[in-house]
Amino acid sequence: MMLGKMTKTLATLAVASLFFAGAALAEPIVIKFSHVVAVDTPKGLAADFFKKRAEELTKGQVKVEVYPNSQLYKDKEEMEALQLGAVQMLAPSLAKFGPLGVKEFELFDLPYIFNDYAALHTVTKGAVGQQLFAKLEPKGIKGLAYWDNGFKSFSANTPIKTPADLKGKKLRIQSSKVLEAQMKALKAIPQTMAFSEVYQALQTGVVDGTENPISNFYTQKMHEVQKYLAVSDHGYLGYAVIVNKKFWDGLPAELRGQLETAMIEATDYANKIAKEKNDQDLEAVRKSGKTEVTVLNAAERAEFKKALVPVHEEMESRIGKDILEATYKATGFTK
Ligand code: LMR
Fold first, then answer.
1. What is the whole-number distance in angstroms between the Cα of residue 94 and the centre of ligand 1?
2. Is the model's pLDDT at 13 over the cut of 60?
3. Among 72, 89, 81, CA closest to 239
4. Residue 5, CB half-sphere, CA atoms under 13 Å: how many?
5. Which end of the chain has the smaller Cβ count within 10 Å, N or C?
6. Do residues 149 and 276 lie in contact, with contact meaning Cβ atoms separated by under 8 Å?
7. How many whole angstroms separate alpha carbon 150 and alpha carbon 147?
8. Residue 96 Cα: closest atom of ligand 1
9. Contact at 8 Å (CB) between 59 and 118?
10. Among candidates 73, 50, 98, 40, which has minimal Cα distance to 241?
11. Separation of 326 CA from ligand 1 center, angstroms?
């Protein structure tokens, strides 16, 4: 009797262990999500948010591994890694699609093209945003969402109040021809460089200054190596969340649907915290006492706008007249 009971228990245990072994064999699908900024930024936080919701909604059938801070790949490498399938998801800034051959994304780099987040959203949530995503597909890439960061400031080791203050300065830019034209319009010398190299380049004087939303400036500690920051809001920096199309299309439909939901939630979250993070980080830069912060007034901004708006016309053929006009129409942009 006793023996019979034991045999039964052993048999149950054996069945249970077989069941768990089977479950363990069904390995989760892994999404490697690589990005270049710090964790405590709009993009870094939104990537972590996506990971959490994706894993919850798929009940662990999908595992998202987030690699922040250029830990896995730098700007240019990450684009190549995505196309090769070495990573599945990225969120490069919209200024980094030129080298991929999709130069129309540089629309977002045009100086003063968006007055505020609301104007920007008419594009990212509208027809132009979708039109741009369609251009990625022949490259084996699918655009899933636009995530906000914010409006850029200039920094240098000398005060910045007028366009003339940047004349002759070597300024780091992202890999965008529009940004190159923007710096040239200020008679500055643009230097394209990966984001991961900017802090050191500023520290050693390889470049004199740069531009970025405050959240990137602060979390990379650029305020420790730049004496002046001018809040100019002269241009926008945001992201396109992109995936390897073959990988995405090959996912089981149910899981893909759950991931789409996680992405919608992460996008709402990113766009909700972007301004908040930049405002907080501006306060942190001020408090650090290491960089003198000047918020440019309306007259000073008008002077920068006058110097920079000719870049729109200069870059019209690169971006496409139709895209530019559709954007002006959506945002109500005036020179
Ligand atoms: C930069 O290179 O300055 C930014 O695009 C970094 C980022 O991803 O926000």
1. 9
2. no
3. 89
4. 2
5. N
6. no
7. 10
8. 5
9. no
10. 50
11. 26
Residue identifier of the C-alpha nearest atom 5 of ligand 1? 93
Q: Which residue has the tokens 């699918």?
A: 142
Q: For strand 153-156 and strand 228-231, is the pairing parallel, antiparallel, or unpaired?
A: antiparallel
Instruction: Tell whether the model's pLDDT for residue 27 goes beyond 70.
Output: yes
Residue 271 has pLDDT above 60, yes or no: yes
Least confident segment among 8-22, 93-107, 315-329: 8-22
Residue 49 carries which side chain, given as an amino acid letter? F
Q: How far is CA 154 from CA 30, 179, 302, in A?
A: 39, 13, 15
Supply the residue whose CA is at minimum distance from atom 2 of ligand 1: 195
Burial class, 5, CB count within 10 angstroms (exposed 0-12 / middle 13-18 / buried 19+) = exposed
Q: Which CATH class is domain 26-331?
A: alpha beta
pLDDT band for position 139 (cuts 50, 70, 90) = very high
Domain definitions of the chain by residue range? 26-331
- For residues 33-50, give the mean pLDDT: 98
Taking the model in full, what pTM does it have? 0.92
Alpha-carbon gap, residue 114 to 129, rounded angstroms: 14
Mean pLDDT on 20-41: 83
Banded pLDDT at 23 (limits 50, 70, 90): very low
Residue 7 has a pLDDT of 52
Rounded to whole angstroms, how far apart are CA atoms 17 and 124? Answer: 50
